[in-house]
Design brief:
By secondary structure, the protein is an all-alpha fold. The chain has helices spanning 8-27, 34-67, 70-92, 100-128, 133-150, 152-155. Helix 2 (34-67) packs antiparallel against helix 5. The termini are far apart.
Length: 164
């Protein structure tokens, strides 16, 4: 029997929860905890980059085939592009910068809204579709492993794709 973790949607929801926990850790740090801030912000950026690749390379193309809702997918892709810009800024900044915390906060706000829209709108529609979410989950797990092996190469990957 397959576990819920094998389901593509459950994999993505676990990612959402893990990133939320990282953002909460970041938020709890004092302004003097610059090393911890940098480490946690890097973990957030890494996790979001991998997550976005899983969605854009595997989930969204499959979702397009069953949802026939290009607007929902296009909006998600634009949100990823916006997040990528913030991720690039955060990676280039030092935690002592006066805009560092604010940039992480804006990323958090965008990611929270994006995840909520997926979980409330897209994911329920995908659950009702004929999409094989377990097979997609297996593809995501395999792809994540290749990204983990690639390591730092993933950090510089352009995550934008065409919604077609």
């Amino acid at each position: 029997m397959k576990s819920m973790q094998d389901d593509a949607i459950e994999i993505l929801i676990v990612d959402h929860e893990e990133v939320t926990a990282l953002f909460e850790q970041f938020r709890g740090l004092s302004s003097r905890s610059t090393e911890s801030k940098k480490r946690i912000a890097t973990d957030i950026c890494d996790a979001l980059t991998v997550h976005a690749l899983l969605e854009q390379e595997i989930l969204y193309p499959a979702a397009m085939s069953v949802l026939k809702d290009g607007e929902m997918i296009a909006q998600a892709i634009v949100e990823h592009s916006s997040a990528r810009e913030l991720i690039d800024r955060i990676r280039a900044m030092e935690p002592e910068s006066e805009l560092y915390d604010a940039t992480v906060k804006v990323l958090w706000d965008q990611v929270t809204r994006h995840a909520r829209e997926e979980e409330e709108k897209m994911f329920p529609r995908l659950r009702k579709s004929k999409l094989d979410l377990v097979a997609l989950g297996a593809r995501m797990t395999a792809y994540r492993q290749t990204l983990d092996v690639a390591g730092t190469q993933c950090k510089n990957t352009d995550i934008s794709i065409s919604p077609t």
